[in-house]
Amino acid sequence: MRFVFVLGLACLLGVGFPAHHAGATSGKELYQSCVAKGAKAAHGVDCAAYILGFIDGMIMGYTAHGTSRGYCPPVTGVSVAHGRAIIEKWLRDHPERLNTDAGILAGLALSEAYPCK
Asked: For residue 108, which phi and psi values (nearest 5 degrees)?
């Protein structure tokens, strides 16, 4: 009986979540999502959620490891709206880089916006 329950749960979870494409999100996919109009995000990437997670990850790395190389955010933090504006502008200004992994490009954008002194 337990096996049937687990199998049924696995089937429901498989139906409830769309399959994610292989590979990392590209800068192009992230940019398209950020500039998309309407509620549906392009390519299944939600711009605000991606950027929130990315900013949180950058802060966690900065805080947990005491790193000061490349990224030194203000003590007040970086809001999702401000982070989105920074990353979106960087992607728009560097169209030749859009086929690169979005995480690398977002990191470059934030590091350039908040360099360490």
From this structure: -60, -45
Number of domains present in the structure of the chain: 1
SS3 101: strand
Structure tokens given for 96: 């030749």
**Tens-digit pLDDT profile for residues 57-73:** 887 877 776 655 678 88
Give buried/exposed letters for 44-83 (b at 16+ CB in 10 A, else e): ebbbeebbeebbeebeeebeeeeeeeebebeeeebebeeb
Nearby residues of 93 by Cβ (< 8 Å), 6 or more positions away: none
User: Tokens for 24?
Assistant: 């990392």
Domain assignment present for 6:
no
Range of the domain at 49: 21-113
Of residues 3 and 105, more confidently modeled? 105
Q: What is the CATH number of the domain that holds 77?
A: 1.10.890
Distance, in Å, from the CA atom of 90 to the CA atom of 88, rounded to the nearest integer, reads 5
What confidence tens digit (pLDDT) does each residue in 80-92 have?
999 999 999 999 9
